[in-house]
Design brief:
Layout lengths: L3 H17 L18 E5 L2 E4 L4 E4 L2 H5 L8 H13 L10 H12 L6 E5 L2 H20 L5 E5 L8 H5 L4 H4 L9 E4 L13 H19 L4 E6 L15 H11 L3 E5 L24 E4 L11 E5 L1 H5 L23 H15 L2 H22 L3 E6 L4 E8 L4 E2 L2 H13 L2 E2 L1 E2 L10 E4 L7 H19 L1
Parallel strand pairs: 3-14, 5-6, 5-7, 7-8, 8-9
Antiparallel strand pairs: 1-2, 2-3, 4-10, 9-10, 11-12, 12-13, 12-16, 15-16
Helix pairs in contact: 3-11, 4-11, 8-9, 12-14, 13-14
The chain binds pyridoxal-5'-phosphate.
Length: 462
C-alpha cells in the first residue's frame, strides 16, 4: 500500500504521462478514459505498476531485453562509477569500457574480430547495410549491393531497416521504402510452403534462397540478413538442415552473411552466447542490442570478422576508403560498462546453463498445455525464447482471431503475469503467444507463467 504523498505523486505522474507521453506501438484512444500503465519498480523477475500491483514478467521488459533481471545494483554501480570518470566521448576515440567489452565479447565469438558501437538494434543493422553497400562500391563497381531478407523476419524500425523487413503489417503506411532489398521465403515448417518434412524441408527452404539469388543475379547480391530464430514473426526455430545449406549457398555465391542477434544474442537461447552458435554458422556480420546490457544502459553493436574489417583500410590515399559513419550515442560509456557486468553475471551465475535447463522445462510444460488445449496448434522455442501458436482448427491451422490471442494476454495480465503476443507483425498471424522470461527463471516462475496461461486459455476458449 502506497502512503498518501506517494499516491499523490504517482497520480501526477500518470497525468503527466497521459498528457504528454506518446507510448510505443500503442493506440492512445483508450487513454482518454482509462489509464496508461506505468511500471514503477523492478526486482528480479518481478515489476510493480502505479497501483502497487505485482507482476511476474515473462517477457523481460516487454521486448526480450532484461536478461539478468531487474534491480542489479552491481550493474548500476559500475555505470555510476564510469559516468563519474568519463560519461562520453565520440566513438572516433576509444574508451576504457569500450575496449574491455569488445575484448570480452570477441573472446566469446570465435571467427569475429571487430565491434562497432551504436545505440539500437535498428541502427546496428543499418551499419551492416551501409558496410555491405560500401563494399559493393569498393569491390564491385556498386553492382553487388542487394541485401536479401526473409519473410517474417524483422530488423528494426527505421526506414532502412523496414526496407529489409519481412513483417508486412509493420510496414503498411510507412512506404515508400529503400530499394536494393529483396525478400526470400520464410523457413517455418508449421506453415509449410513445400510438401516435405524435417531435413528435406530445411534444405528446400534454403534452396528457395538460392532461387532468389539466381533470379536476381548472384553478381548483384551482396549480403543475406537473417535472424537465427525469428522473434516477432512467430518465434520460428529453423528446421533441420536449413543452416548448413544457407551457409553453403552464401559461400558459393560470395554473399556476406549478416546474422541479426538483437533478440537471440547474449544468452537468450541457452548454452551458447549467440543463437547462430547452435547451428555452426560462420557469419560476416553479427548485430546485437537488447540483452547486451539487459536494458541497464543503451548499447548495440555491429560485430564483423576481420575479412570485412580489412576491406575498410585498404587505401590510405583514398579519403573515402574507410567506414565514414558515426553514431553519437555509440560513444556513451555507460553501455559497455553495463555490458561488462551483464556478461560477468551471466557467467558467474551459470545463466547460459540455467537458460537451457529452464527453457527445456518450459517447452515441456507448454507442450503439456498443448495436450490439454486444442487451441494450441504448435509450441516452438530455443532456451528461454518460446512461442505457442493459437489456431481455431488444428487440421486447417487457421489462426485464431487476434482479439482472442490478445484476450489471453489480458487474462494473464489480470492474474499478474505479463506475457506477449505477436503484434502488428505478419498480416493475419498475430496469434503466437510469446515468452521470454529472464535467464534467472526458476521452476516456480515457469510454473506460474504456464499456470496463468492455462487458466487464461480456459477462460477465453473454454
Ligand atoms: C530481430 C530484431 N532486430 C532488430 C530489432 C530492432 O531493435 P531496436 O528496437 O533496438 O532498434 C528488433 C526489435 O525488436 C528485433 O526484434
Amino acid at each position: 500500500m502506497m502512503d498518501g504523498n506517494l499516491q499523490n505523486d504517482i497520480e501526477k505522474v500518470v497525468e503527466a504521462d497521459r498528457a504528454h507521453v506518446w507510448h510505443h506501438l500503442t493506440q492512445h484512444k483508450p487513454f482518454e478514459t482509462g489509464e496508461p500503465r506505468i511500471i514503477v519498480e523492478g526486482r528480479g523477475m518481478r515489476v510493480w505498476d502505479q497501483h502497487g500491483k505485482e507482476f511476474l514478467d515473462a517477457v523481460s521488459g516487454g521486448v526480450w531485453t532484461v536478461n539478468v533481471g531487474y534491480g542489479r545494483e552491481r550493474i548500476a554501480n559500475a555505470v555510476r562509477d564510469q559516468l563519474i570518470k568519463l560519461n562520453y566521448f565520440a566513438g572516433s576515440a576509444g574508451s576504457i569500457p569500450g575496449a574491455q567489452f569488445s575484448e570480452k565479447l570477441i573472446s566469446r565469438m570465435p571467427g569475429m574480430s571487430r565491434v562497432y558501437y551504436t545505440n539500437s538494434g535498428s541502427e546496428a543493422n543499418e551499419k551492416a547495410f551501409k558496410m555491405v553497400r560500401q563494399i559493393a562500391h569498393k569491390r564491385y563497381g556498386g553492382k553487388k549491393h542487394k541485401i536479401l531478407y526473409r519473410d517474417r523476419d524483422y530488423h528494426g524500425s527505421t526506414i532502412g531497416a523496414m526496407s529489409c523487413g519481412g513483417q508486412d503489417e509493420r510496414n503498411v503506411q510507412y512506404g515508400p521504402f529503400a530499394g536494393g532489398f529483396v525478400r526470400v521465403p520464410h523457413c517455418m515448417e508449421y506453415r509449410a510452403q513445400w510438401d516435405l518434412t524435417g531435413e528435406d524441408y530445411g534444405q528446400r527452404a534454403a534452396d528457395a534462397i538460392e532461387e532468389v539469388i539466381l533470379a536476381e543475379g548472384p553478381d548483384t547480391v551482396g549480403a543475406l540478413c537473417l535472424e537465427p530464430v525469428t522473434a516477432g514473426g512467430g518465434v520460428i526455430t529453423p528446421p533441420e538442415g536449413y543452416w548448413p545449406r544457407v551457409q553453403e549457398i552464401c559461400r558459393k555465391y560470395d554473399i556476406l552473411l549478416h546474422i541479426d542477434e538483437v533478440v537471440c544474442g547474449v544468452g537468450r537461447t541457452g548454452t551458447h552466447w549467440f543463437g547462430y552458435q547452435h547451428y555452426g554458422i560462420e557469419p560476416d556480420f553479427v548485430t546485437m542490442a537488447k540483452g547486451v546490457a539487459s536494458g541497464y544502459a543503451a548499447i548495440a553493436c555491429c560485430v564483423t570478422n576481420e575479412r570485412v574489417f580489412e576491406m575498410f583500410k585498404e587505401d590510405m590515399t583514398d579519403p573515402l576508403d574507410y567506414f565514414r559513419d558515426i553514431s553519437t550515442f555509440g560513444g556513451c560509456t555507460a553501455g559497455p560498462a553495463a555490458a561488462l557486468e551483464n556478461v560477468a553475471i551471466i557467467e558467474e551465475e551459470g545463466l547460459l546453463e540455467n537458460t537451457t535447463v529452464m527453457g527445456d522445462y518450459m517447452l515441456d510444460q507448454l507442450r503439456a498445455l498443448q495436450d490439454k488445449h486444442k487451441v494450441i496448434g504448435d509450441v516452438r522455442g530455443k532456451g528461454l525464447f518460446l512461442g505457442a501458436e493459437l489456431v481455431s482448427d488444428r487440421t486447417s491451422r487457421e489462426p485464431v482471431p487476434e482479439k482472442q490471442a490478445q484476450a489471453v494476454v489480458a487474462e494473464c495480465n489480470a492474474a499478474g503475469v505479463i506475457i506477449g503476443v505477436t503484434n502488428r507483425s505478419v498480416p493475419g498471424f498475430n496469434n503466437t503467444l510469446c515468452y521470454s522470461p529472464a535467464l534467472i527463471s526458476t521452476r516456480d516462475d515457469i510454473d506460474q507463467i504456464v499456470a496463468a496461461t492455462d487458466t487464461a486459455l480456459t477462460r477465453v476458449f473454454g
